[in-house]
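Work Package 3 (structural annotation) set out to generate three-dimensional models for the target panel prioritized at the project kickoff. During this period the team completed the workflow that converts sequence records into discrete structure tokens, so that structures can be stored uniformly alongside our sequence database. As a representative example, we reproduce one entry of 200 residues exactly as it appears in the project archive.
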Amino acid sequence: MVEQEFYNTIERPSQAEFKDKGSRFIAYAYPLQETGAFKALLQGLKKEHPKAVHHCFAYRTGTDGNTFRVSDDGEPSGTAGKQILGQIDSKQLTDILVVVVRYFGGTLLGVPGLINAYKTVTSFALQLSPVVRKAVEKQYSIQFDYTQVNEVMVILKQYNCRILSQEMQLFCVIRTGIPIARVEEVLYQLREIRNVDVSV
């Protein structure tokens, strides 16, 4: 299996609405780096929409395709969460959460109606979110002496590595995300500098 070098995600939240027979469906799409952040976003929407009858959602994170979750939140099984995830996957997105808030309008929509509503409103929200292509990264920790900061930074900048965290004291530690396609070159360059320690 070839490791993919890039993935698609969204950079900023978006929101869209769809109405059917008096029911309102409001979809919120959010960038989601790690699944831990999802609970806070969902709680925030529940506070914002206390009178809504359902808060259905789906998210997918990571680039291996294995980290996802769906919830119908009381809607008939398969009518909501699965439809939301289907729209995320049809756009080949990851690191994304979509929550659809539903206000009931008094008329039952039936299973086909619900499937259509959740699909449509998710699709609308995703159309409003500009898709960004990002490099798949491998994370490394680099330890080095303070006098070598410039040498290390030049390499990281040159290969578009992302700085995830840094501690700059007499002895420095940087956590970085290196684009998968450039890992070998970056590690080679870093190891050319004396006393620089790189670990996964």
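The mean pLDDT is 94.
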